[in-house]
Amino acid sequence: MKLNESVMELKMFLLVLGLLVGTGSPDMGSSQGKCSESLVQGPQTQENRTHTTHSKKPFPVLSFGYDYVRLPFEISLWVLLASLMKLGFHLMPRLSSIVPESCLLIVVGLLVGGLIKLVGEAPPVLESNIFFLYLLPPIILDAGYFLPIRQFTENLGTILMFAVVGTLWNAFFVGGLLYGVCQLEGHRLVTVDLLSCLLFGSIISAVDPVAVLAVFEEIHINELLHILVFGESLLNDAVTVVLYHLFEEFSSVGTITVTDVLLGIVCFLVVSLGGIVVGAIYGILAAFTSRFTSHTRVIEPLFVFLYSYMAYLSAEVFHLSGIMALIACGAVMRPYVEANISHKSHTTIKYFLKMWSSVSDTLIFIFLGVSTVAGPHEWNWIFVVATLIFCLVARVLGVVGLTFVINKFRIVKLTSKDQFIIAYGGLRGAIAFSLVYLLNTDHFPKRNMFLTAIITVIFFTVFVQGMTIRPLVDLLAVKKKQETKRSINEEIHTQFLDHLLTGIEDICGHYGHHHWKDKLNRFNKKYVKKCLIAGERSKEPQLIAFYHKMEMKQAIELVESGGGSKLPSAMPSTVSMQNIQPKKPPQDRALPQLSKAREEEIRKILRTNLQRTRQRLRSYNRHTLIADPYEDGWNEILIKRKKMKELEKKISQMNNYLTVPAPPPDSPTIARARLASGEMAGKNISFSYFYPQAWGLKSATESIPSIKVDLASPQSPESVNIVDEIGMKGSQPKVSEEGGGLTMKVPSPTKPRKDQTTDEDNDKEPQQRLMRCLSDPGPAAEEEDEDEPFLH
Amino acid sequence: MGSTNSTLLKIPNVEVLMQETGFSPAHIIRLHDRFKALDKEGRGHLCPHDFGAIKELAMNPIGDRIIGAFFSPGKETVDFHTFVKILAHFRPVDKDRPKEPNSPEPINSRSNKLKFAFQLYDQDKDGKISRDELLQVLRAMLGMQVTDEQLESIADRTIQEADLDRDDAISFEEFRKSLEKINIDHKMSIRFLR
């Protein structure tokens, strides 16, 4: 029950809090602790846990040595708290549908901070270097690696306009007007000079990628708007970095000259392009490295993460834009790395990135809350309110003005609804906070006031704008993201249209978007892919890769769903059925449906046996990944399937094998009984199974060639050995192997992916048998040969 | 603007052309210049050989089809009018045009753009993209690196996905339906032709 769960959640939360505060308090001393490196500071006080007494005391059976683990323990505790909070919110769906996660997390942070303060300790503050070095990169890498390149490049001009011109406009508008207000206000604010105001303006004007991601991900807005706001938040980092350093330098010097301004512009170009170049270099290195990882698949994801992180750090060394480096690295390496790495590594990368970015994101918001309680504040009504108003006004004016200019150059224009969402989605977040935190109090005596103002703006944008954007999106009926995947039709026709438009552009003599894209693609195919993609994959056209991915995905879905009555609409099997009997009336469509249903049932039966067979898994060496035929063998399966189809065509004349009407779908028990009794063996009923999970059976009459496709190798833990479970007709149960069940034998690889399948058995299966229904599980002897290569 | 006017006057029926296609005079002139540049022998019309001289078009996998689209069946030459009319398909759609109920659909409407693309697939002009025609296109786009089996399986799947009336071919309506999610206005427009 939901109520019980929330109560349990609350209890867990309190427990963790208690632990945290309890462990924290003896250690956190009295200081504000700004300068230390650890997350939770506090000099050692009088606590000494290892007593050295002079009197004789008995041997300590149990002692307490907390200092030894203090730092990692507390870090883990914070991360645990963050994760539990995340868990908790999703257990309360009503709350999480109204309030975005980021708001709830900030509130939690406030609570925790308040609690810590109540206890009397100083709450930890979000250290800037921890934020920039550890918390920010995962989020940016996650965003950059999965950046939709196509939309990004199509809208690049718009994004750049918003990022560069928009941020500059915001910075100067806010900074300038604030200066004016400060001057007008008089007594307390007059000390704030122009440079400080401009610096403050530049910090606060940048749209924050973390906040944007956090909010926009929940509202599922259409891709165009998403990429516009998100792209802007990423690219404005360069502007922010340059302006920040510029004004910081100037504030210590005191005066600006025209040369300085020019140098500033040059600096901007250096920072942004330099960051991109650094990122691209590391990306190419990563792609190149991944070319050679076919034998050490376990550490493939590590290369991706390491190279990206190094790109970020290298860019930061030279004060280049680390964010842009990270994005460039991820975007550049992705197509090549994905062509090289295994399916499992791809999944690992995806999930690790999502996990880290999720944890980072949660921690950032919680710490924002805690820092609000902790940080030194100086509240000044006029300044704060003025800041808030100017930020909003600047954003709206900037977006409207820029859209007016941009729409002259766009084919698909931005409507006023779009403009509203773009303006409204300009959220500020933790980056601004950290940047202010880094300010030197000597140069900026009003730093605390800045801090307060920034926190207020952040809270306002995250809470008010974050909470209201979802109902507003619904109210304005903004187009939402289309959930459906691309169909092969769309893929083919899109490529066709690309070629068409390139051709037309050539005829017109116009070197437009398509022309350059085509040139880039050609260059890519000719030179780059050869270097960076291993083996034969480099020649694989994109369409083929897409098609295979689609088929693979569908096949895996089918296997995993096992028993789902809803089947994907475009089944290869129905295709083959259609092709075999093109003239048959629609009644034949019943045939594959029924066989599918039966198939699913049997699969379900076998799957339940999987639990028992799991115990028989041999211990494995954790350094060797058992080659999973699910990923590497699928290509062969697909080719085999096509061959089967052709064979079917040839045999289609033999009526007794293809046109027998299927018996009605049985319940699992009946199916089981039927199998057990081998009832089918005698009949000449056969279905054609074109799924990977069909098993080949020895036909009673060997004269008919048939195709046998088995699934998963015996070693794969997911495989279920039919032979074992049904155990009939004298086939010995394969107790020696791990995992019984459906065994897939990987047929001889016809696709030239030999380097990928070296450790699979390339046993040639010359016979092709027509697939029949399941009675005799068939010979299991062939599976034996697959044992050896896998384990070493 | 003396030179533009004089150029415009040289082109016969230029007003009709501008009305039909929606191009502005500046565009017509630009296209006329391009036409003249392609028409190296100055005959006033283009033949396939002139198109073939465009280097990048030769490298385009469907280059020959595109060239073929300019020549109406039976005709060996392309005059300026036809040239402009074909290119008018790729003008960005004018969203603000008033919709007169009796006027014919503009050449650059979404539907006409799709029809143009459809005709490029459908070489034998029977109104359907048969499996063979699809295979030809796939073979052209994918080159020699792909085996016949793979091509056929892709073609099969494509037809199976799009084919709603089960006639093993893709009609124009099915073609249009399969592309309904794609922003054709964007994908089939060349910006400078606005």
From TrEMBL, chain A:
Residues 570-672 form the Sodium/hydrogen exchanger regulatory region domain. It is a multi-pass membrane protein. It is found in: Basolateral cell membrane. Residues 80-473 form the Cation/H+ exchanger transmembrane domain. The chain crosses the membrane at residues 99-118, 130-147, 159-181, 193-215, 227-247, 262-288, 318-337, 358-375, 381-407, 419-438, 450-473. Residues 596-623 form a coiled coil. Residues 28-54, 569-592, 724-792 are annotated as: Disordered. It comes from the Eukaryota. One of its GO terms (molecular function) is sodium:proton antiporter activity. Residues 781-792 have a biased composition (Acidic residues). The keyword Ubl conjugation applies. One of its GO terms (cellular component) is basolateral plasma membrane. It catalyses: Na(+)(in) + H(+)(out) = Na(+)(out) + H(+)(in); Li(+)(out) + H(+)(in) = Li(+)(in) + H(+)(out); Li(+)(in) + Na(+)(out) = Li(+)(out) + Na(+)(in). Keywords: Antiport, Calmodulin-binding, Cell membrane, Coiled coil, Glycoprotein, Ion transport, Lipoprotein, Membrane, Palmitate, Phosphoprotein, Signal, Sodium, Sodium transport, Transmembrane, Transmembrane helix, Transport, Ubl conjugation. Residues 1-24 form the signal peptide. InterPro entries: Cation/H_exchanger_CPA1, Cation/H_exchanger_TM, NaH_exchanger, NHE-1-like, NHE_CaM-bd. GO terms for biological process: regulation of intracellular pH; sodium ion import across plasma membrane. Residues 28-47, 571-581 have a biased composition (Polar residues). The keyword ATP-binding does not apply. PANTHER family: SODIUM/HYDROGEN EXCHANGER, SODIUM_HYDROGEN EXCHANGER 1. Belongs to the monovalent cation:proton antiporter 1 (CPA1) transporter (TC 2.A.36) family. This is Sodium/hydrogen exchanger.
UniProtKB/TrEMBL annotation, chain B:
GO terms for biological process: protein transport. InterPro entries: Calcineurin_B_homologous, EF-hand-dom_pair, EF_Hand_1_Ca_BS, EF_hand_dom. Residues 109-144, 150-185 form the EF-hand domain. GO terms for cellular component: cytoplasm; nucleus; plasma membrane. The keyword Lipoprotein applies. PROSITE patterns: EF_HAND_1, EF_HAND_2. Keywords: Calcium, Cell membrane, Cytoplasm, Lipoprotein, Membrane, Metal-binding, Myristate, Nucleus, Phosphoprotein, Protein transport, Repeat, Transport. It comes from the Eukaryota. GO terms for molecular function: calcium ion binding. The keyword Repeat applies. Belongs to the calcineurin regulatory subunit family. CHP subfamily. This is Calcineurin B homologous protein 1-like.
